């Protein structure tokens, strides 16, 4: 079992500080939220009693995000959740929420797959090369400020004028090929 398959163990000390057992350092709630966003399961336990505190801390992370204006849960849903704690519906609500989120995630995955499959250009020969050229063109036009698409670190290559001339040449060739395909 790899490290990413098992939950990351976080221990809460009596001082309420949270300790990452894998990296041997203290973490914040935002760090824990980052682990979860990255796809990692987390388990938070009280060091002294051994009690599982994961649910309590996850709710605290959600509450902090909601209070900062990063609202995901509409008021109606929050009201219904509060009501569910005072009714017999509590046995059904957890399964319903889990199934709803699973369906949402499946739907998002299928939508991305379908969008890729429906793109007529994706099947065109040389599409990947054209995408790479577009990225290089944007990078050259923005002076490297755009960085790579999907990358947050801007880079600037040496010899920018030569790269720009090459990109212009490749762009002209692409325009010629596209105009021939339209005829």
TrEMBL record:
It comes from Donghicola mangrovi. This is Polyhydroxyalkanoate synthesis repressor PhaR. One of its GO terms (biological process) is regulation of DNA-templated transcription. Residues 9-69 form the PHA accumulation regulator DNA-binding N-terminal domain. It comes from the Bacteria. Residues 73-111 form the PHB accumulation regulatory domain.
């Amino acid at each position: 079992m790899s490290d990413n398959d098992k939950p990351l163990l976080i221990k809460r000390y009596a001082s309420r500080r949270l300790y990452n057992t894998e990296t041997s350092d203290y973490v914040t709630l935002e760090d824990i939220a980052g682990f979860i966003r990255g796809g990692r399961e987390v388990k938070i336990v009280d060091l002294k009693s051994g009690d599982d505190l994961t649910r309590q801390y996850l709710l605290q992370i959600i509450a902090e995000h909601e209070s900062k204006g990063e609202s995901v849960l509409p008021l109606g849903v929050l009201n219904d959740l509060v009501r569910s704690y005072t009714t017999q519906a509590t046995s059904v609500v957890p399964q319903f929420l889990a199934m709803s989120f699973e369906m949402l995630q499946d739907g998002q995955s299928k939508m991305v797959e379908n969008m890729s499959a429906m793109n007529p250009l994706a099947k065109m020969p040389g599409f990947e090369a054209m995408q790479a050229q577009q990225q290089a063109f944007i990078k050259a036009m923005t002076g490297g400020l755009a960085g790579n698409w999907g990358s947050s670190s801007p880079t600037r290559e040496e010899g920018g004028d030569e790269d720009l001339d090459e990109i212009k040449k490749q762009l002209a060739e692409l325009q010629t090929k596209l105009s021939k395909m339209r005829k």
